[in-house]
Design goal:
Layout: H1 3-27, H2 34-75, H3 92-103, E1 110-111, H4 114-127, E2 136-139, E3 146-148, E4 151-153, E5 172-173, E6 176-178, E7 181-190, H5 199-223, H6 234-237, E8 239-240, H7 250-262, E9 270-274, H8 276-283, E10 305-306, E11 309-313, E12 321-326, E13 330-343, E14 352-365, E15 371-375
Parallel strand pairs: 2-13, 8-15, 9-11
Antiparallel strand pairs: 1-13, 3-6, 4-5, 7-14, 9-12, 10-11, 12-15, 13-14
Helix pairs in contact: 1-2, 4-5
Length: about 375
């Protein structure tokens, strides 16, 4: 039986007990006896606790349903659906079917159905170093902005003696405003390439499109300079960490961890971001005398970690920066998960099909002290 149903059943049984006791006293034309008064008081207290717990569970269920609905609105898929292993460029048959369906309802051009576009977004998240790192992705209304609340300085909590004045402190708020910007690309392919039998080549085209979009978004979200249509990457918005000369040493790494944890950076959401050459230098660190590698493992595969924190390696992280980041403090605003459109008209005379992919995102840091960025000189 679901937990909520169990709580409701307990409350119903308790209320029946209370009602029987009150009805019995009324039928006998008397007040409650002392033991009954005690039972009644305990039962009403328990009833109030059950009411409170039921309300909490119902509120949690509502929030969960809203979150699932928001996710479905962004991606077109529920959380329990598996992430597709690849995004395949649509076939000629797919395009003809969509064109027939959409033009039947008086639309121009062809927009891929939501499940197809969401498949692209799912693969994009898997390919992107930033989007797959655990950062928060929040929906933003089309063409709008989203203000994410943050705290620059917290309230001060202190022990207070009886009847003593409680100190008044005012937290300083530092809201993050996300205003998604558009990133887009087009791909042109001949009708022969999109023939229904050309599945392998279509998969290659789809994979390349996914990779290129992920590369661009990573470059922007990591270290974009904020000019023009560029985002301001979180590596530019963080707190300066201990400086590093030439290549990181074991002491440098421990100093960065100390700075991160000194700012109350949580262990569960901390993550390193570094360039492949920096990761190679870290893996090559050896102990003085024995010459043994300091890294217990040479960091094979996605399970690589350093000083207890997982490591993300990307060429889009500048080789002059090394960061330890609380990914909980990094927020991505997304007003368009991924919209994929197809046109058979633009290159009609060449018998070619044009596919366009669009995504609108922005990124911000709620608390810059949770992003420690060390410069490598």
């Amino acid at each position: 039986m679901p937990y909520l149903d169990t709580l409701v059943a307990e409350r119903r049984a308790l209320w029946r007990d209370i009602k029987r006791m009150l009805d019995r006293a009324e039928q006998e034309h008397r007040n409650l006896t002392a033991p009954e008064e005690s039972r009644y008081a305990r039962a009403t207290d328990e009833l109030a606790l059950l009411d409170e717990r039921i309300e909490q569970v119902r509120s949690q269920q509502t929030r969960t349903e809203e979150a699932v609905a928001a996710l479905a609105g962004i991606t077109g898929r529920s959380p329990d659906m598996p992430v597709p292993t690849t995004f395949t460029f649509p076939s000629g048959g797919d395009i003809r079917t969509w064109a027939t369906e959409q033009r039947a309802v008086d639309t121009s051009g062809i927009t891929m159905p939501s499940p197809v576009s969401s498949q692209f977004w799912d693969r994009l998240r898997a390919e992107s170093v930033v989007l797959s790192s655990g950062v928060r992705v929040l929906p933003v209304g089309e063409g709008g902005k989203l203000t994410v609340p943050g705290i620059l300085t917290s309230a001060t909590v202190a022990g207070v003696a009886e009847s003593a004045l409680i100190g008044d402190t005012a937290p300083v708020f530092a809201d993050v405003e996300l205003e998604p910007r558009k990133f887009a690309a087009t791909v042109t392919a001949s009708s022969e390439v999109l023939a229904d039998s050309a599945g392998d080549l279509r998969a290659i085209l789809g994979s390349d499109l996914t990779k290129q979009m992920a590369e661009t978004l990573d470059k922007q979200m990591l270290d974009g300079d904020g000019t023009g249509q560029n985002l301001t990457g979180f590596l530019r918005a963080g707190t300066a960490g201990p400086s590093i000369t030439t290549a990181p040493t074991a002491d440098d790494l421990l100093d960065i961890v100390t700075a991160y944890e000194g700012n109350d950076g949580p262990a569960g959401t901390g993550r390193w971001f570094m360039h492949p050459t920096v990761w190679a230098a870290v893996r090559a660190l050896t102990a003085t005398g024995s010459g043994e590698y300091l890294l217990g493992s040479l960091g094979a595969g996605p399970g690589r970690s350093l000083v207890g924190y997982p490591v993300s390696v990307s060429t889009n992280v500048p080789a002059t920066k090394l960061a330890l980041v609380d990914t909980e403090q990094v927020v991505v605003g997304q007003s368009m998960g991924a919209v994929v459109d197809v046109s058979t008209d633009v290159r009609f005379s060449y018998d070619e099909v044009v596919l366009r992919i669009r995504a609108r995102v922005d990124i911000g840091v709620r608390d810059t002290t949770g992003v420690i960025v060390s410069a490598i000189s």
